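If you are new to this repository, start here. Below is one unmodified record pulled from the training split, so you can see the exact layout before writing a loader.
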Amino acid sequence: MNKKIVIGIGVAAAAAVGYFFLKLLPKSLQLKESADNIKVELFGLPKIHKLDLSGLKISLDLKVDNPAQGRLNIKIPSVRAYYTPVNTTNRSLLASTTVSDKTYTIEPVSTGKISGIIIEVGAMNLLLNAPTIVKDYLAQGTKILDRVGFDVIAEVNGIPLKVQKL
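And here is the target side for that same chain:
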């Protein structure tokens, strides 16, 4: 093949790749910015869904604020429940949701609700944390509920969201 044709094809291919890169880069940065600005919060208080010999099931709802101009698809693979004992910052994991790849759509510049997330705390985990929780309850009373916290791990439009404390 002629050298000029090969060089011309190479320059054209490089120009095409550069054009598409510059065209798509702002879009990907905009998606990243949308993922960083999304806000996930608890919608109301968590509720005891079921309590039996196998453990405790907690039901909670999430409120998701979408400040972006575009529709967001959010996947929440995991919500984790923690307990922080009094006079310490060390959190102990109580339980987390089963991994899910269900996707929720949040409309532009709106708030969406994700309902019915179930966290199962196994009986063994309850027994291991019970002495600390009972001791704190005797010392703090009803303020013990303030010691339970939740984290959400999510993915927005395919971009991992920072872990948010609820």
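Two things worth knowing about this chain: Helices lie at 3-37, 123-140. Residues 25-32 have pLDDT under 50 and may be disordered.
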